[in-house]
Amino acid sequence: MIGEILSIIVVFLYSFSAILIFLYSFSQWMLFVSYLKKKEKVPQDYFSEKDLPIVTIQLPIFNEKYVAERLLECVSQIQYPKLEIQVLDDSTDESLASNREFVEKLALQGIDIKLIHRTDRKNFKAGALKNGLVTAKGEFIAIFDADFLPEKDWLNETIHFFTKPEIGVVQTRWFHLNRNYNLLSKIQGMALDHHFTIEQVGRNQAQHFINFNGTAGIWRKACIIDAGNWEGDTLTEDLDLSYRAQMRNWEFVYLENIPSPSELPVVMSAVRSQQFRWNKGGAENFRKFGSKVLKSKTILLNHKIHGISHLLNSSVFLWVFILSLLSVPLLFVYKTPVDFLLNAGSLLKYTSVILAIVFYTTFRKTQGKTFSDFPKFVFQFLLFFPVILGLSFHNSVAVLEGYFGKKSAFIRTPKFNITQNNDSWKNNQYLSKNLGWGFFVECFLFLYFVGGIVLGILLQNFAIIPFHFLLALGYFIIIIYTLNE
């Protein structure tokens, strides 16, 4: 009797997780359909040369020894007649002095640039942006993180969309200079290409809520103030302000055709810190806005559904982890009163097909223009899946912390100044040498899913062995990259 009850619980939770994962993939399919209907965005009008507004570029920096000077040099080359640059440097290491010296050098060249340093780092990046806004001259605020290299004509290509007074934000697409550096950069590039192609275009085309991505975009200063200014109570202050602004009826424009070059993390600790911040921040914003979106009397039902789905995006890692964990005891479940629920697990194959189609569309757009590149996509996709599965435990911890309201510091992602395949990340002083308790859990999970493969063979349940193989491979890759660092 007890065994039967446990079997029912396992099957129910496994099937429930499979259904939620399928619903996530279905929301991706709906964005894909919206993406296919996209129209090229052009400004409604253009500012005359004498009416060009002042733009302030804010550069939030914290201990960016390897990339800060590169960023400052690049931004100083932007061609725009009415430009102010704020270097919001909260650094606590030797990079502060060198940054100050470089800023003074640029100022002597006639560039309107100043360094603003805080000593308390209150509210982290959000606090730095808010502090800089007090003295910003610009009617519009452009933001670039330290790992970006904006093109010289970036402002001239984006500012004219603000001739429409309802526009509060213009966001451009990230382009990755080092996406082929190693396996980690390729996997991240694939995921981010999907976000900046299917998700952002799909949401913007259908006029659903979208998010400013923290960098490579411009805010109307009045929009920031009207929405309540930057707040630091979540780890994703960009998503937070985006929802507050759109709930105040400000419109966002996403420009897929304007790329902003940037650098991807190339070591596991950097990937972990970035993934943790993004996923925990997403969960924190669901806590903050989920009920407000549902209760709103001005947001249409279809926009509410997509808004909630957007805020719940990071939760897919939690459901993937639960499903994967239960897939081993599922091997012992033969007959239960709820056998029909096992059919819900078959939804995973439809989820895989949907994601393959969606990601292949992104691949064709960003990497492979002809069908002859299809084998390259298959190889990348087959590596993408296990690595994402291998990160599911780490990201699930982040999601749970976000939902339960556990506060944590804003951990910056180390930058490396890597743009060529022969550049080295070794000897970077910002790298973490602490394995952490999560690493040992991942080692256990690797052995756990290897055991699942063995059990599948012994019990002659071969259907689930490929899934356990992908899980074991994913955790193995995570372990190897962690130890290598």
Q: Which value, in Å, is the CA radius of gyration?
A: 23 Å
The coarse overall form would be: globular
What share of residues is helical? 40-55%
Number of helices: 16
Across the major sheet, the strand order is 3-2-1-4-6-5-7
CATH class (first level) name of the domain at 53-273: Alpha Beta
Question: What structural class results from the helix and strand content?
Answer: alpha/beta
Mean pLDDT score, rounded?
Answer: 91
What is the CATH fold-level name of the domain at 53-273?
A: Spore Coat Polysaccharide Biosynthesis Protein SpsA, Chain A
What assembly state would you assign to the polypeptide chains in this entry? single chain
The main sheet comes to: 7 strands, mixed
CATH homologous superfamily caption of the domain at 53-273 = Spore Coat Polysaccharide Biosynthesis Protein SpsA, Chain A
CATH architecture of the domain at 53-273: Alpha-Beta Complex
Strand content bin: 5-15%
Distance linking N and C termini: 49 Å
Could you walk me through the main structural features you see in this protein, from its secondary elements to its overall organization?
With 485 residues, the chain is an alpha/beta fold. It contains 16 helices and seven strands. The protein has a domain at 53-273: Spore Coat Polysaccharide Biosynthesis Protein SpsA, Chain A (Alpha-Beta Complex), CATH 3.90.550.10. Helices cover 52% and strands 10% of the residues. Helix 1 packs across helix 6.
